[in-house]
Amino acid sequence: xxxxxxxxxxxxxxxxxxxxxxxxxxxxxxxxxxxxxxxxxxxxxxxxxxxxxxxxxxxxxxxxxxxxxxxxxxxxxxxxxxxxxxxxxxxxxxxxxxxxxxxxxxxxxxxxxxxxxxxxxxxxxxxxxxxxxxxxxxxxxxxxxxxxxxxx
Length: 152
Fold this sequence. Notes:
Strand content: over 45%
Helix content: under 10%
Radius of gyration: 20 Å
Structural class: mainly beta
Distance between the termini: 30 Å
Number of helices: 2
Largest sheet: 8 strands, antiparallel
């Protein structure tokens, strides 16, 4: 991944593909390898909910300490649920390329970071305009940041 910036436009190169994203329109974009081995992108226009799962490690002390139990390490796993806007029939037909991908990166344009992520969940719903009775469709995409953080 090779990010470069000029003004309000971010230029991203992943593999042989290049992308330009105008800053300010959305916070997140996903870059992923599709089922054919090429690279695609998906700009998230909906809301995002972030959460941290904490695993606290502690130990008990023996002796004349005021505190008998100390927290010595926190394991922090960040998850994000990305909600898409209403998708067209053509956009929803391609969602399986993203949801089934094993190589996905999240571009956080507010923080100017590109981080590897893991697609969460075991179900891949196939929603299309025609399949949903002529209603527009949206997805809730659950991802986990690939690197676990530790805090002492």
